[in-house]
Design brief:
Layout: H1 5-17, H2 20-29, E1 41-45, H3 54-57, E2 60-64, H4 71-96, E3 100-101, E4 104-105, H5 110-131, H6 139-156, H7 167-181, H8 184-187
Antiparallel strand pairs: 1-2, 3-4
Helix pairs in contact: 1-2, 1-4, 2-4, 4-5, 4-6, 4-7, 5-6, 6-7
Length: 188
């Protein structure tokens, strides 16, 4: 079995620790000019942000191009999204840790622990598949699983998970990246 973790480690680390724009810039650096999804659309890093625009808050801009993203780009994007998803899990645990209900820590509630475990398991399975150099037909499933894990985590953040300026904004941008770069039918 071939492992390819090292090839995407810089993209993953940028997503995990820096910003969506830094991670996407790292990914685009491997492919020259930004490549487009099936609809011809591109999301890439921009130098300035727009305060009231979700993409702008993440340092991103949308455009069009004829240069199409390929299989390697979709794999790199999965590593990027995995980094964002694992970051979201960390933020979720940090958010929940000090909170209680009825004298019980939220992290001790069975449903909360179950949701965290489910999201973490999805992330671990995605990582294992990516490390094993996934087949092209596995990539849409990987992206779906990351979207599902992120949606579970966002619900645990309550209303703060849906604010554009926080973890919710990054999760929406992550899902938007999958929508842009993969065929719509593959993601359903």
């Amino acid at each position: 079995m071939t492992t390819r973790t090292h090839g995407w480690q810089d993209v993953y680390q940028a997503a995990r620790a820096d910003s969506v724009a830094a991670a996407l810039s790292t990914l685009h650096a491997r492919f020259g000019p930004p490549t487009a999804g099936p609809g011809g659309h591109v999301i890439s890093a921009c130098r300035s942000t727009v305060d009231d625009d979700l993409l702008g808050r993440e340092g991103l801009v949308a455009s069009s191009t004829e240069c199409r993203a390929g299989r390697d780009f979709a794999e790199g994007l999965a590593w990027l999204r995995l980094g964002l998803s694992e970051r979201l899990l960390d933020e979720c645990v940090a958010y929940l840790a000090p909170r209680t209900t009825g004298g019980t820590a939220l992290l001790e509630l069975q449903m909360v622990r179950g949701d965290l475990a489910d999201a973490g398991a999805e992330q671990m399975e995605v990582r294992a598949t990516l490390v094993g150099a996934p087949a092209p037909e596995d990539l849409p499933r990987i992206h779906r699983r990351l979207t599902e894990a992120d949606r579970v985590l966002l619900r645990l953040l309550g209303a703060s998970g849906f604010l554009a300026g926080g973890p919710g904004g990054r999760a929406v941008v992550s899902e938007l990246l999958a929508d842009i770069y993969l065929d719509r039918e593959d993601l359903s």
